[in-house]
Amino acid sequence: MKKLCQILIALIFSLQLAAQMPNWYLPASRKVHYPIEEWYIGFAAGSMQSGETYNDAIRRLNLKEEAQSDLVSTISVDIQRSTDTEILSELIHSSNNFEEYIREFFHSGTRIISNINGIPDLKIETYCNNREVAVFAYVNKQELKKYYLNSLSVTYENIRSNLYTIDYLISEEKFLQAQEILNAAKIELTKSDDNFRWVLLLVRNNEDINLLLNQRSDLQKKIDHYLPLLSNKTSIFMHCTGEIFNLSCSVLADAIKDELSKKSCVFVHSPSEADWIIELNTQAILNQSSSQNSDWYHVELIVTTTIHNVPKNQTSTIYSSDTDASLKSNGSYQLAAKKIINRNLFAEQISKEIFEKLTTL
User: Fold this and answer.
1) If you compute the radius of gyration of the chain from its CA atoms, what whole number of angstroms results?
2) Is the separation of the CB atoms in 210 and 95 below 8 Å?
3) On the CB side of 214, how many CA atoms lie within 13 Å of its CA?
4) What distance in Å separates the CA atoms of residue 16 and residue 10, rounded to the nearest whole number?
5) Which secondary structure element, helix H or strand E, spans residue 87, and what is its range?
């Protein structure tokens, strides 16, 4: 009777242990509940020392790192399997002009597992039976696929939306803002390529992959289209003060802008959008002594140009002047000032001096 009680107690104890034991602890159970077709899994276990807590044992044995490393090895096996000649050939055959692109993605597939903690929905569980402690790392492939497909979709839509605004910004001559959006789009597209590697690994439908390949290709073409339009542009905000007698200083400023536009300079509407800020201060002087006993009005036009390099926070100043005369019989000395502006040599001179500063400051 005593022996029977001992057997019953041992049996009850075993059943209790079995009830507490997770379905991932034993290899056979892991195979049933976490099949490799559906899960990436990693397992690590070790013996506890006397008086040691299971958390201390996990840290001492680096079991979390071991389990994650084991999970990484299962991903590596999947990558290797995906680069199998038959699988790769089938995908390349159905993907038209993307052979080089696909090969590069598969051959750089190890990038997707460089940061195990960056894998979404990665779960870690632990188990201890007073003799042994175990750690299990696992993530569902279907959930990963949904995550990365959705992530790519959102990213591509965001890039596409931002690129659409570039045409408007160019039409408004907001080139600096357009360049910033283009640079951000390039960076975002490159970063999204790691998510694309996951998609190539997890998605077994070539039609879905080809759709994504075409979307990515279209985005890259749009970026490549805008690059020459926005590269090597010097963005300038120009402001003028002063009068040329009763003429607006903008008459001279516009003539200078026309000359600088011939040298890949573009003019923006706000200082915050500019690489360079140029201030023109104009002053027109009637030379009284030369004009007093003459049939001519003698006029000198003086321009002080302040050039500020915004990125470098450097400033330089240019002083320019020109003279001309107009017959008093023609009416006003304003005509002499107009002649200086209209013959365009003064604007050419100033724009040449400005451009020299733009290339050296």
Assistant:
1) 37
2) yes
3) 9
4) 10
5) helix 85-93
Report d(CA 245, CA 340) in Å as an integer: 13
Q: Which residue has the tokens 């996990």?
A: 58
How large is the angle between the packed helices 193-202 and 206-230, nearest 10 degrees? 160
With tokens 């013959």, the residue in question is 343
Alpha helix stretches (DSSP H) within 172-305? 175-191, 193-202, 206-230, 250-261, 288-292
Tokens of 118: 């960056």
Distance of CA 351 to CAs 106, 190, 291, Å? 53, 40, 30
**Residue 137, C-beta contacts closer than 8 angstroms, at least 6 positions apart:** 41, 42, 43, 64, 67, 68, 70, 71, 122, 123, 124
Query: For residues 151 and 153, what is the distance between their CA atoms, to the nearest angstrom?
Result: 5
Q: Residue 84: is it exposed, middle or buried by C-beta count within 10 angstroms (0-12/13-18/19+)?
A: exposed
The single-letter code of the amino acid at 13 is: F
Could you give the count of Cα atoms lying within 13 Å of 1 in the half-sphere of its Cβ? 0
pTM value surpassing 0.85: no
Please list the pLDDT of the chain residue by residue as tens digits (361 residues): 555 444 444 444 443 444 479 999 999 999 999 998 899 999 999 999 988 888 999 999 999 999 988 988 888 777 776 655 455 555 555 455 555 555 665 555 555 555 566 688 889 999 998 789 999 999 999 998 899 889 999 999 999 999 999 888 877 767 767 878 888 999 999 888 878 878 877 876 667 777 888 888 889 889 988 887 777 677 889 999 988 877 888 888 888 888 888 777 888 888 888 889 999 999 888 876 666 667 777 788 889 999 999 888 999 999 988 887 777 666 677 777 777 777 678 888 898 998 888 888 7
Distance in angstroms (rounded) separating the CA atoms of residues 321 and 304: 9
- How does DSSP classify residue 140? E
Sole residue written with tokens 């003086």? 302
